Amino acid sequence: MDEPFVGEIMLFAFSSFVPQGWLKCDGTVYNWQPYQALFALIGNTYGGNAQQQTFAVPDLTGAEPDPHTMYCIAYQGIWPPRPY
């Protein structure tokens, strides 16, 4: 698998294992420090509290096309290019 873009959301064909460099898209709130690149992209769009230095990932629970799949968001990878 090629290196993903930070913030890329991908559907994985399993639901019990989250690959390294990814977080499950289940609405969980995280401390932003271990995930600074992802936080820089999504901020508090999906929840969390900037004063408490937390952010949430999107909650795509139930949006999966099959119960044995899950959506994950990349927190490691290539920084997305920005048009200038």
Give an overview of the whole structure.
It is built from one helix and five strands; from the N terminus they run βββαββ. The protein has a domain at 23-70. It has 84 residues and is mostly beta strands. The mean pLDDT is 93. The protein starts with 8 loop residues before the first strand and ends in a 10-residue tail after the last strand. The strands form two sheets. The protein has a three-stranded antiparallel β-sheet, with no helix packed on it. Strands 3-4 form a two-stranded antiparallel sheet.
Question: What is the fold's blueprint, element by element?
Answer:
Elements: E1 9-12, E2 22-24, E3 29-31, H1 36-42, E4 54-56, E5 70-74
Antiparallel strand pairs: 1-5, 2-5, 3-4
Brief rundown of the structure:
Helices cover 8% and strands 21% of the residues. It has 84 residues and is mainly beta.
**How much of the residues is beta strand, in percent?**
15-25%
Mean pLDDT: 93
- Low-pLDDT stretches: none
Strand neighbour order, sheet with most strands: 1-5-2
Q: What gross morphology would you assign?
A: globular
Helix/strand-derived class?
mainly beta
Multimerization status: single chain
Number of strands: 5
What is the radius of gyration? 13 Å
> Main beta sheet, described?
3 strands, antiparallel
Distance between the termini: 29 Å
Helix content: under 10%
What's the SSE pattern? EEEHEE
What is the count of DSSP helices, taking H or I runs of 4+ residues?
Answer: 1
